[in-house]
Amino acid sequence: ILPPLEATMVKIYGSPKSSAGRCYWALEEAGIDYERADVSFSDKEHKSEAFRALNPNGKVPVFVDGDLVLWESVAINRYLFETHLPEGVGTTPAERALTWQWSLWSQIQYQVPLVALFIQLVFVPEERRDEAAMQVARAKIGPLNTLLDTHLAQTGHVVGDHFTVADLDVASVARLNGMLGIDVSDCPHLTAWLERTLARPACQRVDAME
Prior knowledge:
The chain is of the alpha+beta class. It contains 9 helices and 4 strands. 54% of the residues lie in helices and 7% in strands. It starts with 10 loop residues before the first strand and ends with a helix.
């Protein structure tokens, strides 16, 4: 049963090991108190009337701050940075647009083939894996890693010369390379940036949760 909603408590629905993980990371970066609310997929809590009242899509994460209810992880993260770490969304209209651009890219372009491959390798039994689909995914991942590596060669950050919400959002996807055994040794800028970004204390605290 989903825990009752308390309007005065900042709350995040979803496990740190789900797509909500990047939101936990943003919450830890912001340094604010929050309540964790796990959602049982095996019990189909995400399809319940109570949960769909929060997110009609029936997916995590969902973020609640008083009367505000947000879903879609990059929107949640942007809200957290704008309200608690405004320098992390950019200090000019151009920088704000660029951080939004890269956060969207991480979800619309970068994550798609990585998640497609993740599903095949993690959730599909070996004898039933779609080799053709895996080849298509791998063919897309390589050029995207190269694109990111070339971009990071400029300043060592996704936008500007310091950590922003775009670094967090993109890194939360880029780390899938390691989980999937994808060799990125030919992307030294990506490798160095990702190691440095994932070593941030806020990220380490989330990784230690489960």
